[in-house]
Amino acid sequence: MFCEERMIVEQLIQDCDDLPTFPDVYLRVKEVVEDPKASMVELARALSVDPAMTARVLRLVNSPFYGLSGKIETVSRAASILGMQPIHDLVLATSLATAFSKIQPDVMDMKTFWQHCVERGLLARALGQHCQLIDSERLFVGGLLCDIGHLVLYQKMPDLATQVFERAKTEKVLRPKLEQEKIGFEAAEVGACLLAYWHIPSNYQLSTRYHMSPSNATESSLELDIVHFVGVVVECQSLDIPREHWKQWLTIHGQELQTLPDEDLTRMLESVQEGLSQTLDMFSPATEHAA
């Protein structure tokens, strides 16, 4: 991003009065996880200041999302089984849901927006499992976050954002190029800047920034390929673009996704829809306001 353009995007975020904030508990958990000397007990203590957040994390840990055998009753036990990083990512995901719940429905269709976020997350996780990535749960968060920039665009310039969406839907093209033409920057740039403002780890900032243009990233990775893939697929679905046209916007470097059989993608998309309602229920703070 050019310096002048970045300054405009940063100012846009700073001027966004209704910008949701992350719960303090997330920053506490993040600080613990980033400390190589921290213990599982310290992680549990950091999370314990927010009983509601603790309950949601344990609900997720004990859900089919992880498929663990036996009931997990404490955060420290969950961390000992899953590791500290997955607990961080669960807290990040539930914090995102809490932040979303504060956005008024007259700003944008939050129910639809949140559903698309979860669809991206679930599909990214499924692709990660298909590619046998050990930490495929992290891809759920990556998919969840990648379209976050549209929150700011719809708050600060709703008319322009709506015009871009309607034109993209009419012309059957993706939004980034139209956003660049009509607004001067892409939602992905805004999203990455917003995540930096929220102090979200840099790997999520990068995947958000380049999820629609991975060829512009300084280096490629399977994780970025996956977030790009789900970004294009869900964007095309939201714009009613026929499936036979999806591949023209995909820029995939790794063989794992280049050779993905169409029947496997169909199976994953069906699985995403089957699990969508239950996953939305687990992140209920985000949908209660928008229902």
Q: Would you give an account of this structure?
A:
The protein has a domain at 102-288: Orthogonal Bundle (Hypothetical protein af1432). It is mainly alpha-helical. The two termini are 36 Å apart. 66% of the residues lie in helices and 0% in strands. The longest helix has 21 residues, at 110-130. It has 17 helices and no strands.
CATH class of the domain at 102-288: Mainly Alpha
Helix content: 55-70%
Q: How widely separated are the two ends? A: 36 Å
The helix/strand series, from N terminus to C terminus, equals: HHHHHHHHHHHHHHHHH
What Rg do the Cα atoms give? 18 Å
- Can you tell me the CATH topology of the domain at 102-288? Hypothetical protein af1432
Briefly note the structural class of the backbone: mainly alpha
- Silhouette: globular
Point out poorly predicted stretches: 285-291
Count of DSSP-assigned helices: 17
Average pLDDT for all residues: 86
CATH-assigned homologous superfamily of the domain at 102-288: Hypothetical protein af1432
- Multimerization status: single chain
Biggest sheet: strands, sense, closure?
none
- CATH architectural category of the domain at 102-288: Orthogonal Bundle
**What is the strand tally?**
0
| Percentage of β-strand residues | under 5%
